[in-house]
Hints:
Layout: E1 4-9, H1 21-32, E2 36-38, E3 42-49, E4 60-66, H2 68-75, E5 82-86, E6 93-99, E7 103-111, E8 126-132, E9 135-144, E10 149-155, E11 158-164, E12 172-177, E13 190-194, E14 220-222, E15 224-230, H3 232-237, H4 242-261, E16 267-274, H5 293-305, E17 315-319, E18 329-333, E19 343-346, H6 361-374, E20 385-388, E21 391-393, H7 442-454, E22 459-461, E23 491-494, E24 510-513
Parallel strand pairs: 2-5, 7-16, 13-18, 15-16, 15-17, 17-19, 23-24
Antiparallel strand pairs: 1-9, 3-4, 4-12, 5-6, 6-8, 8-9, 9-10, 10-11, 11-12, 14-22, 18-19, 20-21
Helix pairs in contact: 4-6
Amino acid sequence: MRLLFIYLFLLPSVGWTQEKPLAKAVSNAKASGKVDSFSNLFTANGSTKAVTNALDATQFIHQLTLNPTVLESISSQKHQLLEISLPTAEGSLELELVPATIFAPGFKMVTAVPDPNFTLDITKFQYYNGIIKNNPNSIAMVGISENSIVGTISDQTGNRVLAKRNEKSATEYAFYNENAVTTQKPTFACGTINSGPARTPLKENPTKDTLTHTTNSTTCVKYVGVYVELDYALYQLYSGNTNELTTKTLFLFDQVITLFRNDGIYVQLSQLYIWNSPDPYSGATIPSSTTNTSELLDKFRIHWNGNNDNFLGQVAFVLTSRTFSDAGGRAYLGGLTIRPYAYGMCAYISPNTVQPYPTYTYQVGALTHELGHSLGSQHTHWCGWEVSPGVLGAIDNCAPTEALEGQSPCPPGPPPVGGGTIMSYCDIIPGNSKDFTKGFGPLPRNKILSVIASANLPTTTSDGIVESIVTGNWSSASTWACGLTPTVMRNITVSGGHTVDLNTSGDTKEVNINGDLNLSISSSSLNVNN
């Protein structure tokens, strides 16, 4: 079975002239006519007012009761297009979801020392993302296991969360705007370290890979594999429960990966490494001898430099629950293209930001932001953006401007309308916010795409799946190469967890995938004849 986790984000088309990737994936799935609808996954169980001193006292917390039988039915099979409803006092919110892939081919989970209690089977989970019905400018990210579901929704009203009530029964859930349960904004600042020569002004006209394809997948695209370490402090915070820690981390990355995906940027997890013994970066004690994010990142980089930078993936990050006074995260700018500096870190990672109602968006925003630096983007308050033809400056006014090397700071940019973008600091300004619905924004997005276009990266299908495939009767395990048509003229069945390589010219009749299939893409088209 597949992984199903729910995270929901609504993103308008900022800087896009065509349908955004998630809306397009839903449209393609609709065209197949294969829709599985579950309107009774939850039952409304009343609403309560926002918590005392909430940032938005006008919001309500909607209490929901989960139907375990329906959840089991959803998680027991793969859905080409999944529709679920979230009932509230204002009416039901209907989601349209397609399967999502967050794992790179060959994904691994490893602990520093063997843990006999680490029994998590990721095939027992499913990941989906998509949109709110009739809203093509939205994002829905969903994660479901056999007995739980979690999600986050973002739109112009803020971020909404679907989560199990902490310290309640397994069927008691809540659906709420995070500002209804949050009393103060978390502070965030990050430190960016240049990983190469001095940065010059950005004048981006990124080239696009011209790729053809003959599958129902939208296209073959380059992706960035992310190697992730969870430090010993984070392991201790979860009381040594590696299963729970891993589950929550995968939930987090599902959201991060979806934010990238809806801007046409593809990121996948290549390996998850858990320090269940003292790590070499922070030590075994809290507080740690490591006192700031710069020191932790430096130790992380030096550790891997000493191992020939031989981690699995293209960039490597360490996550910690520790707090530091200097920043909440740090990464080497453009580290994706300079292997000895392909490193970053995020602090303040914790199971729940607010009790008894968990919120996730601070951690999602911080990690997406730092990965954005690794992929080449500066802050939006940097002075080197070409904000109009021939004119360099800052995109917004959410932080003191960052000058180009050897120059004085430029004037601040304009105030963002409706909130800032991912690479901004707008969420730390009273009365302002960071709006996930805007994604990275046109200039940072184009910069990241240009870096990826010039980098030597593995490739995958943009939707992570090959569609319109029917049952066959021939079984084999190998590697699937996108863009190369096979010579095998017979029906093929691929069991879950394997990869398939069809790397010669010709056609195949039918391919049936049982469970998850990791795609290893090496060319531009794949032809499957039903």
